[in-house]
Amino acid sequence: MVLTTMATESAEPLHCSTFASRYVQVCLPRFKMPDKSIPKDAAYQIINDELMLDGNPRLNLASFVTTWMEPECDKLMMAAANKNYVDMDEYPVTTELQNRCVNMIAHLFNAPIGDDETAIGVGTVGSSEAIMLAGLAFKRRWQNKRKAEGKPCDKPNIVTGANVQVCWEKFARYFEVELKEVKLSEGYYIMDPVKAAEMVDENTICVAAILGSTLTGEFEDVKTLNDLLTEKNKETGWNTPIHVDGASGGFIAPFLYPELEWDFRLPLVKSINVSGHKYGLVYPGVGWVVWRCKEDLPEELIFHINYLGADQPTFTLNFSKGSSQIIAQYYQFIRLGFEGYQQIMENCMLNAKVLREGIEKIGKFNIVSKEVGVPLVAFSLKDTVTHTVFDVSENMRRFGWIIPAYTMPADAEHIAVLRVVIREDFSRGLAERLITDLNKVMEELEAHATRRTLVGHVELADDSKLEKSMREITGYWKKLVSERKKIAGGSGVC
């Protein structure tokens, strides 16, 4: 939800487009419902015309969100657009598909369940809701443990890196949990597991590790964090767990780095969230959260309802939502399989490599991102005297490219970068085109900076070339006269 401000009644009305004027002869109000209905053709054209001013999703390189799917999947989504996911008794097949997806993800993340066991998890509206649910489960488990021990439970905290997405800050603020952030430093833009373990205390409900930082795409070292917390738990008896935010990297690591230990293979990892609408290859918005076992999700958080036709356990923040994305996720899983996802992720990484090498050849940037992680390229300017990454970002929009520019979080705010996210629909040809356009922008910015310097410098101003020449000639003769005076003993005779 985006908060908006309401315009006054004196705001200009919405003028009809050229095409819509064939049906509508009066201007439509912008912020009030019109008094009368208009033809569907006109309504479509008016809205379509305004939407033309939006950016092209395929060229939106700021977003991790899927912007292309196969036509067959589109058809399935449209066919399910009128199904309310929460009506499980009315739509039992949709519910079954969700359960299958949960189990597929749990097995992908090496949850300790048998082939005939049911995994514990739920589909959500993106990873934001998934993180809220996982955080609530950690908070409730910690509270229950503290109460059983007769200890206060009014000051919970969670340890994260300063590179976490805003949804973690929202969870902390909305559910009254202190957010303890491990600060970043230049050249190291992910959470330091050693510092994170040091910040843990008896009130820490969990440590949140990021598998695929939004800033640089890097994977945090969950294995080292698990080992450090294991030792600390032995010393203190706190039993601090780990949550892995795999929103961006959860559908990448299993296919590209199968030997990397970050998931339920590590004993302290109790829950994992992942975004189906990112590298799960589904349109927004769908996320998933899975728990290691049933004991990690407190029963008192689960609601049982029966007024929709049958007993239905539910653990969500919102109630009604569409079924389309759940169905699309199942389509992608059975359509692609492990091999298909692996090929797509490998192709994304190859395109990221092409882009990274092309940006390096321009010679104006430092690559900030690493080669292992989410397929993206984050890069900063070597020289920011005459222009910044924000200037580069703004000028790239002239070619249609939407490339975000931003500063790093706490203790690294002086570092500003550009970031290009490589998705399935970002082809090799687009990567090469982006390099060409980026090189053009850099040449133009440097040429403009040179002209600006020349104009701003009195000695080299365009309108003072004659004055410059005269000063040079006068200076030469003054120097010559001075030398002659010395030779002549100060007589002044040349």
What is the topology?
Elements: H1 40-51, H2 71-79, H3 92-108, E1 120-124, H4 126-148, E2 157-161, H5 166-174, E3 178-182, H6 193-199, E4 204-210, H7 222-236, E5 242-245, H8 253-256, E6 269-275, E7 287-291, E8 303-305, E9 312-314, H9 324-362, E10 365-367, E11 376-381, H10 389-396, E12 405-407, E13 416-421, H11 428-456, H12 465-487
Parallel strand pairs: 2-3, 2-4, 4-5, 5-6
Antiparallel strand pairs: 1-7, 6-7, 8-9, 10-11, 11-13, 12-13
Helix pairs in contact: 2-9, 3-9, 6-7, 9-11, 10-11
Summed up, what is this model?
The chain has a 7-stranded mixed sheet, sandwiched between helices. A 4-stranded antiparallel sheet has the order 10-11-13-12. Strands 8-9 form a two-stranded antiparallel ribbon. By secondary structure, it is α/β, with parallel strands linked by helices.
Q: What are the salient characteristics of this protein?
A:
494 residues, alpha/beta, Aspartate Aminotransferase, domain 2, 2 domains, seven-stranded mixed β-sheet, four-stranded antiparallel β-sheet, globular, disordered C terminus
What percent strand? 5-15%
Radius of gyration of CA atoms, rounded to a whole number: 30 Å
- Report the count of strand segments: 13
* Class from secondary-structure proportions: alpha/beta
Arithmetic mean of pLDDT: 88
The CATH architecture assignment of the largest domain turns out to be 3-Layer(aba) Sandwich
Biggest beta-sheet profile: 7 strands, mixed
| Count of all domains | 2
